[in-house]
UniProtKB/TrEMBL annotation:
The keyword Ribonucleoprotein does not apply. The keyword Coiled coil applies. Residues 431-472, 620-656 form a coiled coil. This is DUF460 domain-containing protein. It comes from the Archaea. Keywords: Coiled coil.
Amino acid sequence: MQNEIIYGIDIAKNSPRSRELPKYSVVVLKNGDAQAHNMVPRHRILKMVRNDHPSIIAVDNIFELASNKRELIHFLSKLPSDVKLVQVTGGITKKSLVRLAHENNISFNRFDPDEEAETCARLAAQGIGCEVSLFEDITKIKISRARSLGRGGWSQNRYRRKVHGAVKVKSREIESILEKESKEKDFTYSRKIVEGFGGYVRCEFTVNKRRDEISVKSSSTSDVQVNVRSVERDKIKYLPLKQNTRKFTIVGVDPGTTVGIAVLSLDGELLFLKSCRSISHDETVKTIAKYGKPVVVATDVTPTPSAVEKIRRSFNAVIGSPGEQIASEEKIALARSFNFSYSNDHERDALSAALFALKSYRTIFEKIDKKAPPNCDVDKVRTYVIQGCSVDEAIEKAVFSVNTGLHKSGNVRKESETESDDESRQMAENLKRKNKEINELMEYVLELKDEIAKKDQRISKLELMVNKLRTNAYKEIKKDKEIKIRNSKISRLKKELKQVKKSLHQSYKHSQKLKKIRKMEIKGEGMPVKVISAFTKEDISATRESYGLKAGDIVYLEDPSGGGAMTASILIDAGIRAVIVPDELSYAAQSSFLKSKIPVIKDIPLQRADDFAIVDPEILEKAILEWEEYEQEMRAAEEEQKLQFLIDEYRSKRKRGLV
């Protein structure tokens, strides 16, 4: 890092949480020479960074630059994407700046902001500290309309088609760029489209690559805007600048002709995801080994396939098996946290297997994070726990391995310095005795660990039994629920069947009645009568459409009120033989029927069946004869009245001398 530009920053006045804007001391380290700038506001720092383009901005506390995570993201989004923000005091577990400076032979005045800033820059130049990572290695590209379409007028559809077409064209241009770069740089991407009239309303690409590693940039035209942004992490991640040891990993494998491989760190970071066709076992092992040392080799099926077991033995890792088949919906839900980074089912199955294994250890990992001491290698403790140790044993084992190395180096120095000193020789004998006691205690500890391992195995077996019992209980609950749903459905169908039977019974009774009427009609025991519900034009027309009205029909008016001469003329024109009524007709209707010599019969017994009825022929004939007698009487009276009228008129004329 000697030829790179490194910024060291320390707060000089106020703070990000104060009312007044903070001022900073900025030291620019270039080729070993330091140049200090005093009382620099934050906006000027951003301008300097854009001009100098440093590789690293080093601070002792990132929250001197911003008061919270949201503000820090805002600050980083304004920096060039390849500029690293480094916290030299470490990540989650921190060391003081004074201690770090002392360990690396750097002296400074901790009350001078310029010297603190320079110390931060020099420590970062030596690879000390952790890079602050606030963004995933995933980029979102959104192509959308640059303006609102509004309500519009006559040309609104043409305008909408123009804008949506421009969005579609831009989306295809960007997709062709991504297609080309994905083959060159080996990354995957997915696409989501919302279609509109004449094109796209918007199009979103999720690219599994950092923003600075793809050539698509944010832009805007009169119709289309392109927004390129990195995906934020749920929490701040600290990445050590020096990576001296291989990472411990969890590997998911989907075997077959096409092998899916997913590699996760113990923190859940996706290190590798790909599917390879016709890949050999050795090539698979080499590919996995590139990204760290597998602690768990996981599969998404039970029992474990032989190909996965072979890979597990190659790394002497623990097998990760779900115990039962993982449903497709659960696989999709597990992979959703990585924004659907997979490009086919093999990659999805491998990723879901690794995530399922990580999920099973999540509770114990949280317990380790709480209990682990500051200087302990957490990943090593996690590895010991996965291999079968308890949390306390794993911490003790990790700390002991570090302390053993320190004790050995200290003993060598003491023996070389006190070779001729009797007192030191005595101390060496005491130390030897103590070491012997320690070895005996260590053997005892190993015995206890063996016993604990056996107990852990028994606990694992019991947990498997509990899981099986839970599965059976779940199946019983599901079965009871299905039975309840079916019983409810059967009850509803029974009610429907009861209603259908009732309707069928009524229909049967009606059918029997009609048959009876028809038999009586055939035998001559009755004459059919057509029933009209009301003496109106509409009801007469309805009866005519449904059953017809022809000459010689007998009609029964259920409600004879309301009809007049015009209504009566409809039945007269149809040529009916007689009209049966329960009450009196209007005078106009009565007169019309009388003139047309159509009998109007009142109150004779009928046998009803909906719109049909039947009457005894003898009773009907008798009633018609009675009506005819009445009609003759009425006609005679009418003739007599006319004759009387002529006589009266003649007498009147004689009296007046007109005749």
